[in-house]
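Researcher: Please translate sequence to structure tokens.
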Amino acid sequence: MPTREARIARHIESAFRQASSGLTGKDFLVAEIEEPAGPPAVAEPILWQQCFSLAGNPALWICAGKDLWESLSRLTLEAAGIDPITEEDSRSTWQEIIGQTVGGIASGLTSDLRHEVTATEGTELAEEPPDLAWTWFSVTSADGTQSGAWLLRAAWSSELAGSHDPNPAGQETRSGPEAVSKTFDLLLDVALPVSVSFGKTSLQIREVLKLNTGSIIELNRFVTDPVDVIVNDCVIARGEVVVVDGNYGVRIHQLATREDRLRTGMGEHPRLGMKS
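Model: Translation complete:
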């Protein structure tokens, strides 16, 4: 079984690959590598510090040189049809890539720990904190068009590594063929409709009949409020609207508890995050 450190590294690989590929529309390979011999020359690095809900203190650091953050940002903006591209554009786009990466890492931790983990406060640092144990990753294009590999490095706190235990002491686990019911396994390929709700309102029939092109319907939700993610008529999560490769998407911020999902399935209004 992979160590805690190895599992975190795998989550970083997966989350960064999905964020980069999703935003640029190109496939990338991300893999952990040995620390390069001698300090590699990394020009104008951007260092990101991230906290998670399971650790109140800063828990993760991700650092990339300008060759990486500028290239991926440019590919992302070009895919969105934006040109010309300034350095400020590239820096802000890189923050979006990092934001989606830490969100993916939080999802991986949630899956492992079997309780919700969210990315909380994150910030760009001007100076590198001392005594960080860095893990290095190579980032290459899957189609071979990239010359060489970009370098990415990440470090995480002992608090994060210590919390990353999918099998807490005293918790019984099941393994082997009976770990997952065969009946449930048959359902895994069933397709379910997924929709996103921006809000609701009620109109009288006379108001509906007056609607025409250009009419505006005011919903019961502010523009800053999260949207509902609905699966099979059941609200399972809430999140914010993002743009991925020219398409709308939703970044999940809150997952509904089992009780919430049961209530919404019976027609009650969800209260996500109200866990007892």
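Researcher: Any highlights?
Model: The beta strands are 28-33, 46-52, 55-64, 119-125, 135-141, 150-156, 194-197, 227-231, 234-244, 247-255.
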